[in-house]
Amino acid sequence: MGVRTWAAPIAMVCLLALAGCASGPTDLGPTLTAPTAADELAFRLDVTPSSPQPPDAGFRMPELSVYGDGLVVRSAPDIASTVTRAWPVTTQQRLSPAGIDRLLNAARDAGLAAPTDFGTPNVMDAPATIFTVPGRVTTVVLVDDGAASLDSSQRAPYERLQTFTDRLADLDAWLGDDLTAAEPYSYTQVAVSARAADSRAMQSVKPWPLDDLAYAGVPHGSGRCVIVAGDQLDAIEDVATDAAASTRWLSADARFHLTFRPLLPDEAGCNAIDAT
């Protein structure tokens, strides 16, 4: 009888101890359900430049965008060039429905589906990483050894998020057969940010082939934003794809600094792009 009398309390103590020592989060939030439309965002990863931010910071392509139809668009490093080119390198892939579920389940496990205290490392002017999932946007400063300066309750969530971000950096290896091979992004419209440039600067200069940049498009931040498509897109691709990011563009005897950016499926025009 003695054995039977003490077995249940001992088992209960063991279960409580295991529950108390669990390393995972206690409330992951709701299951993340992906949209199905081609222009609806299922997941996005973006990293802002560290301070001070350049004037065209908002015109950068996000690191990774995944859409309801499985389209994956990534900003890729231009390893073939020794200079930073004006025309961004972007790739597209297709992610299977099962792959989208894997991605969103991993995002939920990382704490992105519910309010989570990831803390902020004691690092000056560090870039911010922005995660977008259905129904929630989370901004976190992710740096190497960032957890060391956090409170004890923040370290485990922070490290889980870092692990998830590391998996995103090697998306092909992680998702395997659920993800097709990368190919150039097939876009139909490009946004151009135009800001007045110092006429005395020594950068190389190219003629702008379209309308006067001083009046083209719409006001956007400290300059203007122009959407180009069709024959106009062909015209600027012919002259811009081999230009350096530092190139200045001559339009109606004035010089401009231009930033080029293909539009993504969830972006309807200049208003969808951050003006900072």
Automatic annotation (TrEMBL):
It comes from the Bacteria. The keyword Signal applies. Residues 1-19 form the signal peptide. Keywords: Signal. This is Uncharacterized protein. The lineage of its organism: Bacteria, Bacillati, Actinomycetota, Actinomycetes, Micrococcales.
